[in-house]
Design brief:
single chain, 130 residues, alpha+beta, Pnp Oxidase, Chain A, 3 helices, 8 strands
Length: 130
């Protein structure tokens, strides 16, 4: 899990795919954190992406850095605890310009049953689960 976090952080921007009533939707993200042994992502509860994850928690994310890419398939689980929101905002302070723990909009999701695959054109794919 730490290796996945490090890769996402190094990539800077990664892409999250959700299902919108059968239509895939992909958008850029850049906030991630490990809290209490789980990998978290963050968005606004009022955004379509949050509503899509609540309706269908199966997601995938993809990142590219230094000639390698990472794909993660997982279930996104909303964690409504203030502590989880605070941990995410403290790990990603730029988010504090738009969000605050307990504001009714900050939504943090942890990844459950995740399968992460590290790939490149020069090496065999390597998979880890968490």
């Amino acid at each position: 899990m730490q290796e996945v976090l490090d890769f996402l952080t190094k990539a800077g921007v990664w892409y999250l795919a959700t299902d919108d009533n059968g239509q895939p939707r992909v958008r850029p993200f850049g906030a991630q954190n490990i809290f209490e042994g789980k990998l978290y992502i963050q968005t606004g509860l009022k955004k379509n992406v949050a509503q899509q994850m609540l309706k269908n928690p199966k997601i995938e994310l993809c990142a590219f850095s230094e000639g390698k890419w990472l794909r993660v398939a997982a279930e996104a689980v909303l964690d409504e605890r203030i502590e989880a929101q605070e941990a995410m905002l403290n790990a990603n302070p730029a988010l504090k310009q738009m969000y605050a723990a307990g504001d009714g909009n900050t939504a943090v999701f942890y990844l459950k049953n995740a399968t992460a695959t590290f790939s490149s054109f020069t090496e065999e794919p390597r998979t880890v689960q968490f």
